[in-house]
Amino acid sequence: MFASPARAPAPRDRLRAALNQPLRAEPALRRESVTELLDLSTLGGRWFESGDGPGYVVESVYEAGHCHGRIPLHRALAIDPARLAGQVRDPRLGETEPRDFLYVDTETTGLGGAGTMVFLAGAARFEGAALHLRQFLLPGPQYENGLLGGISRELAGARALVSYNGKSFDVPALESRYILSRQRPTLRALPHLDLLHPNRRLFKGVIESHRLPMVERELLGFEREDDCPSAEVPERYFRFQRSGDPTHIRPVLRHNAWDILSLVALAAHLAAVCDDGASHPLQAARAAEYAGEHAAAARHYETALSTVPGRAERLESLERAARCHTRGGEWEAAAAHWQSLIDEPRGRRVLPYVELAKLAEHRLGDHPRAYVLTDEALTLARRGLVRPGPDGGELSIEALEHRLARLRGKLEKHR
Predict the structure, then answer these.
(1) Which of 67, 163, 214, 378 is least enclosed by beta carbons within 10 angstroms?
(2) Do the beta carbons of residue 128 and residue 35 sit within 8 Å?
(3) Is residue 12 part of a domain?
(4) Mind giving me the DSSP string for 66-127?
């Protein structure tokens, strides 16, 4: 019996042999069981299978009575989303419930660019009376589809996002990873409450910095103890990835969990401040004005006049109350506030004179008063006692001269 002749090498293998290149090994079979994956059990998480591949998640549960600083988490369940919808000017947010909110925060390997990876994505929502936090961790680049798949499952059950600077950082970072993985991102389809912007607007002049740790201390009474600084986060991840030692990543998980808890507490605090015209009149006024509720804003600004400690806040309250009354058609009330600004000691602005003159001329029909106010403003500006506006603007000396001449013509016409 003759032995069968040996099979001739394939042309590809003959070429590789001629070039002295190693033969390509057969592709490894895909692991079907997550139990065969890297042992990260000391982190307290678990491997899971998604439709896009295996991923790793650490889950934590916080009872509703858990306090983050001074704020118990259950206050976030009492949020009226309609009150917060005006702070992002998205009416869709008002159609949701607090349990629909998905609180999201990410940690990345850098500050931006196509090579930046999201290696940790925290997502929390209320389930029953408890807050469930799921932190999707990337043990290595080969598991990115699993992380993205886990986040997709969280997004599928959400009707609104809550973040801190997420519109500029977290959402674009996640979107870029979805696109590079040939998946369709859905994050921008949801209404988004980015807490950075309303907190910066409402607490302008109250907080020196609007970085999250400072906001936590000032507004929530929460002080991070032995926290992992944000600048160290990428390096800790790289150490974890190189060594497989979970101790490097554990402080980052805690850092991310604190970020998420701060989102929940800040959302509850923001909602309370928007309605608290007694304890936070200036903040409630700013919130109402931004939402287009001018009558309520004027009332809150007027309350703030007797409570705010600083001169800058008093001047802001007078001016904003005047503008809100004007938008509401309350001409006399607006005129009274502009007059108060004119009478304010050390007032060196031409603006109140011009605004009151405009009201007197166009709304109150008092042309003589408008003339006197414009003449006084022009005289003071020429003497350097009030600051005129830039050339070409309505507060410039040229504009005042033009307004005065026009008013003079009106008065002479009606003699």
Answers:
(1) 214
(2) no
(3) no
(4) -EETTEEGGGGGG--HHHHHHHHT-GGGGGS-GGGEEEEEEEESSSSSTT--EEEEEEEEEE
Q: Is the domain of 63 the same as that of 130? A: yes
Q: Which two tokens stand for residue 173?
A: 């970072």
Q: Say if residues 45 and 122 touch (Cβ distance below 8 Å).
A: no
Q: Note down the domain range covering 101.
A: 37-275
Cα angle for residues 43, 167, 46 (degrees, 5° grid): 15
Same domain flag for 50 and 144:
yes
- What the block records as the tokens of 399 is 């504009």
Q: Are residues 198 and 296 in the same domain?
A: no
Same domain, 151 and 97: yes
Dist CA 323 CA 329 (whole Å)? 10
Helix (H, G, I), strand (E, B) or coil at 64: coil
- What is the per-residue pLDDT for 309? 83
Tell me the three state secondary structure of residue 205: coil
And the tokens for 318?
């007078």
Same domain as 329, residue 234: no
CATH of the domain at 307: 1.25.40.10
Taking CB atoms within 8 Å and a gap of at least 24, the contacts of 205-212 are 205/310, 205/312, 205/313, 212/164, 212/259, 212/262
Q: Does the pTM exceed 0.90?
A: no
In-domain check, residue 73: yes
Q: Note the Cα 402 to chain centre separation in Å.
A: 44
CA distances 73 to 61, 106, 152, 192, 301, Å, are: 12, 21, 25, 20, 30
According to the model, what pLDDT value does residue 265 have? 98
Number of domains composing the chain:
3
Q: What is the pLDDT of residues 160-198, one digit of tens each?
A: 999 999 999 999 999 999 999 999 889 999 999 999 999
**Residue 160 — left, alpha, or beta (φ > 0 → left; ψ -120 to 50 → alpha)?**
beta
CATH of the domain at 174: 3.30.420.10
